[in-house]
Amino acid sequence: MDCRSSFLSSKSMPMSEIPHFERTYSTQFFSFRQLVDLKSTPTSKFCSCRGTSPRASYSSPPNNTYVAKKGLSSVDQEKLGAAGNLLYQINGTNSSLFSRNMRILDAFDDEYGGVIVNSERLPANPNVFASMLRFSVSHWKAKEKKGIWLKLPVDKSDLVPVAVKDGFEYHHAEKGYIMLTYWLPEGPSMLPANASHQVGVGGFVINENNEVLVVQEKYCAPAFVGLWKIPTGFIVESEEIFTGAVREVKEETGIDTEFVEVVAFRHVHNMAFEKSDLFFICTLKPLSTQIMVDDHEIQAAKWMPLVEFVEQPLIQDDIMFKKVIDICIARLGRRYCGLSVHQLASRFDGKTSSLYYNVVDSQDTNCMV
Known about the structure:
Layout: H1 3-8, E1 12-14, H2 18-25, H3 32-36, E2 44-47, E3 55-58, E4 65-67, H4 74-82, E5 88-90, E6 107-109, E7 115-117, H5 126-142, E8 147-153, H6 160-165, E9 169-174, E10 177-183, E11 197-205, E12 211-217, E13 232-234, H7 241-253, E14 257-268, E15 276-286, E16 298-305, H8 306-310, H9 313-316, H10 319-332, E17 340-345, E18 352-357
Parallel strand pairs: 7-8, 11-15
Antiparallel strand pairs: 1-3, 2-3, 4-5, 6-7, 8-10, 9-10, 11-13, 12-16, 14-15, 17-18
């Protein structure tokens, strides 16, 4: 190499300046001197002539390209990765030893060998996010991670098309965010699917006069217009089945109740949003009598004699409805026992759960078989 041509190059760096760069850009993981000392770096050239100070220079690849760590040893690659992957960006005017766009997204490991991206520390700029996401995926692949969970809040919704373009898939959405996933290994994804069920409850409430609490819904299919039915509804997030039944009865009729048992449940598929549906029929004990109708959902509500309720044509002609009523009547006659709720703790998940089961006790006069 002709040292004079190197000395005259505007892209040459005197070795005397290297300590300054080392102080400026060194981190707890990496020092600039380590990069300079890597003779295998393909774009770095060094020369020294008698009586002159050694200089370092680099060749000029195409604009806006990055010199990656291809020529580094595995040890040096590890140091670079830990530091956020120190790179050259070379374009003649905006050269930089560091590209903050090449940092790994802030994330933590899950218990199944996957990665959960910290949604509170996402970059706001879509271009920055795109670069960091691609680099992070490559990094996690090299680390043999399994799946990536990427939760994007509403205020970061402009990042969604960026992630989808890079291979992320929709998993589920809630009011405040959308969840996307990426399966890294070869083969089908082993990530758990989105929730597959919705859960509904119905409250069978009967008073001491043998009257059933019934409602007519304001909005229903034409076939069910005029039908008197038990109060029903969906349980909400983090709500127990027994508390959901009590709440629905209160909201629709104003009647306070106490949960007794789950007497039956129905399971059906391809319902709303193509999800499966679990519906729990619960017996409840009334604690009040004055009805206050929820006029947003309910057309009317009343206490209806049990015999009159059962004799409705829509109930008599429907096998499912009739069977549910038969079970409730059998429970009233103590010929059937339902499932009462019990709060039990488990070491498996460290949480207290509601376990519904049947307790047959010879001293229990409320349930005899």
